[in-house]
Specification:
Helices cover 19% and strands 31% of the residues. It is built from six helices and 16 strands. The strands form five sheets. Strands 4, 5, 6, 7, 8, 11 and 12 form a seven-stranded mixed sheet that branches. A three-stranded antiparallel sheet has the order 1-3-2, covered by helices on one side. A two-stranded antiparallel sheet has the order 9-10.
């Protein structure tokens, strides 16, 4: 449904939880995406490389692009906890060069999640098990990004860094308080090591919008906005987990390649009936294609 109704309007798509292990879904998705012009892709490694690393499944990351890649690399994070411990979570990097002397660094990532027993807002103290694992993984991510960018001789060239994904860092202090959380401030500080880091969703909406566990009001009563894909314990938690960051290095002899013209959250409507995996139980109307909202952005090249 996503490929049929939504994908064609984009040039680059970064997906999470698109696992290649024990399923042909990702391979089929990639093959069908080629018919829409996405002739280039990079995904989390699967197979013996994952098993030898002690993981049951791959990291579930996928980048689709209508532009060719000049370079690509992957990172596997330190092992997470809870059910994340069996997945080789990490990050993907691709380099796109729209024209000579122009460098677009794309990163896709999906670090450690928080789990219901820790609460929807465990980062208030930052001492919970998942928060500690996520902080370590984000430190590894920033170092990986720095290495990938440094490997390219971008001096006196145009360059932009774009980081996308479900970072599992809840930007909101609480369900009722949309002010920046402690963990969000730590994330921004970490990305600031790379240069000027701009949270495009915040910059263009003026808030940390809900991207997971949203609510709606009907007749004065609040209820979950989505119940087919979202676990019962995570409904109505009103979290802001999904991001697009635009980063520009300073003092490296480079000038920005891109500026963002728009950025917003997109529920990606489904409009169909959801059923259980066995197909026997009607779960009601499937309103969106994921339990998370998508984040989308448009960019324009800066004339040098």
């Amino acid at each position: 449904l996503f490929l049929m109704n939504h994908a064609a309007e984009y040039d680059i798509i970064c997906l999470q939880e698109m696992f290649g292990a024990f399923s042909w879904r990702r391979a089929k998705f990639i093959a069908e995406a080629k018919n829409l012009g996405f002739c280039h892709h990079f995904s989390s490694p699967v197979g013996m490389q994952t098993l030898l690393g002690g993981f049951l499944v791959d990291g579930g990351l996928l980048i689709l692009s209508k532009f060719p890649f000049a370079a690509q690399r992957c990172l596997t994070f330190s092992r997470g906890n809870h059910s994340d411990a069996v997945a080789a979570k990490g990050a993907l990097y691709v380099l796109i060069q729209p024209s000579p002397g122009q460098f677009l660094h794309i990163f896709n990532t999906h670090p450690q999640a928080s789990y219901p027993e820790e609460g929807a807002y465990p980062a208030m103290t930052g001492e919970e098990k998942s928060c500690k694992a996520r902080r370590q993984q984000i430190a590894e991510l920033v170092e990986f990004m720095s290495q990938c960018v440094r490997e390219r001789n971008c001096s006196q060239q145009q360059e932009s860094i774009v980081l996308m994904g479900d970072l599992n860092v809840n930007a909101r202090t609480s369900a009722e308080n949309p002010a920046s959380s402690v963990e969000y401030s730590m994330l921004k500080s970490s990305l600031g090591r790379l240069g000027i880091a701009q949270d495009l969703v915040l910059a263009h909406t003026g808030e940390h919008p809900v991207t997971f566990g949203d609510v709606e009001e009907t007749g004065g009563f609040r209820k979950p906005k989505e119940v087919v894909l979202t676990e019962a314990s995570e409904r109505m938690t009103q979290q802001s987990l999904d991001y697009i960051w635009l980063i520009h290095r300073q003092g490296k002899g480079t000038t920005p390649l891109l500026e963002c013209s728009s950025c917003q959250v997109n529920p990606v409507a489904a409009g169909m009936t959801g059923t259980s995996r066995g197909g026997a139980k009607d779960l009601g109307e499937l309103l969106q294609l994921s339990d998370h909202y998508a984040v989308q952005a448009s960019f324009v090249k800066i004339q040098k």
